[in-house]
Amino acid sequence: MESKDIFIVHPQNKEEETVLKAFMNALKIKFEVTKDGNYNPDFLVKIEKSGKQFANGEFVSVEKDQLEEFLGLK
C-alpha cells in the first residue's frame, strides 16, 4: 500500500532531529530535510501580508454550498 500523505515535523533541538532521522532510516522511510530559508522571499512577503489581513478581519467567508457561485462557476 502506498501512502500519499506528507508529514511535516518541527524538531525543537538537535537531539530530536537526530532521533527523527534515526527513526526514519530504521523504518526505511524516505525523507528530506529543508531549511526555512529555502522559500522564495517574495512568497514569504505575500504570506505575511495575508496573515496580517486575516488578523485585521480583511477576509471573506464563503459557505460550502455557495462556493461555486462565489467563484463564478454558476
Key features of this structure:
single chain; mainly alpha; 43% helix; 0% strand; Uncharacterised_MJ1172
Question: What is this structure's SSE topology?
Answer:
Elements: H1 14-26, H2 41-55, H3 67-70
InterPro entries: Uncharacterised_MJ1172 (IPR020271)
Short description:
This protein has 74 residues and is mostly helical. The protein has helices at residues 14-26, 41-55, 67-70.
Return the domain count. Answer: 1
Q: Note the overall shape.
A: extended
* Average pLDDT taken over every residue: 90
How large is the radius of gyration? 19 Å
Runs in which pLDDT lies below 50 for 5 or more consecutive residues are none
Subunit arrangement of the protein:
single chain
H/E series: HHH
Assess the beta-strand content as a share of residues.
under 5%
Main sheet?
none
Helical proportion, percent range: 40-55%
The total count of helices amounts to 3
End-to-end CA span: 39 Å
Pfam family, one: DUF2683
What does this structure look like?
The chain is mostly helical. The protein has one domain. Helix content is 43%, strand content 0%. It contains three helices and no strands. It has helices spanning 14-26, 41-55, 67-70. The chain is extended. The mean pLDDT is 90.
